[in-house]
Amino acid sequence: MNKKEAIMEVVKLLDNHCHGCENRYSRDLSYCWKKCEIGKRLNTLGGFLGGKVVGKQQKQRTPEQWDDICKITVKLKENGMTYIKIAKKFNVSVGHLRLQLKRRNKTK
């Protein structure tokens, strides 16, 4: 499927289903992305067209997991690793990593 076909399918789905849907004006978009088959299809088409697929949220880390990450971070930092590389290792932003270190009084 190319982009033109995807756009045409999006327009067709919106015209045939979404304009008559009772949840159209609802502020709870999670219904569309998680429960409605048409909404799920629109979501995947949006991802195909370069947008972000909604509804795939990462699981939040627990405080215990952050404690472990911070302990490892301190050891890696002492060995000369930069915060940027450490953040990439744990798949977090540098700012959030430093915030978690600050909360646990692990910064120098």
UniProtKB/TrEMBL annotation:
Keywords: Metal-binding, Zinc, Zinc-finger. InterPro entries: DUF2602 (IPR019718). It comes from the Bacteria. GO terms for molecular function: zinc ion binding. This is Zinc-finger domain-containing protein.
